[in-house]
Write a structure and sequence with these properties.
Elements: E1 13-18, H1 27-31, E2 36-38, E3 44-46, E4 50-52, E5 55-60, H2 66-72, E6 78-82, E7 85-86
Antiparallel strand pairs: 1-5, 1-6, 2-3, 4-5, 6-7
The structure holds iron/sulfur cluster (SF4).
Iron/sulfur cluster binds next to helix 1.
Length: 88
């Protein structure tokens, strides 16, 4: 992952979803619809995110419901970072 992140610390939280491993179960969207939706192919998408390779990534001031969504993901492909340390 990125090693030199010193200039990116204006937003504390970052949420990442590994789209290529998504099973389209819908848990993230159910628990956290303000951040997650399933796209037209049924794959989880983070609303307002940036596409980095096949991941969606979004930086935020607050964790919002990202932790609930990450905990609910049966294949554990939603990752939440605080100050670049992975919470889960
Ligand atoms: S909870 Fe995980 S597997 Fe289910 S739709 Fe969301 S990202 Fe995909």
């Amino acid at each position: 992952m990125t090693k030199n992140v010193d200039e990116k610390h204006h937003l504390k939280f970052r949420v990442v979803v590994e789209r290529d491993k998504c099973t389209s179960c819908g848990s993230c969207e159910d628990l956290c619809p303000e951040l997650f939706e399933l796209d037209e192919g049924g794959i989880a998408h983070i609303i307002g995110s940036e596409r980095v390779e096949n991941n969606d990534e979004l930086e935020m001031e607050e964790e919002n419901c990202s932790v609930d969504a990450a905990e609910s993901c049966p294949v554990m492909i939603i990752h939440v970072y605080k100050d670049d340390v992975e919470l889960l």
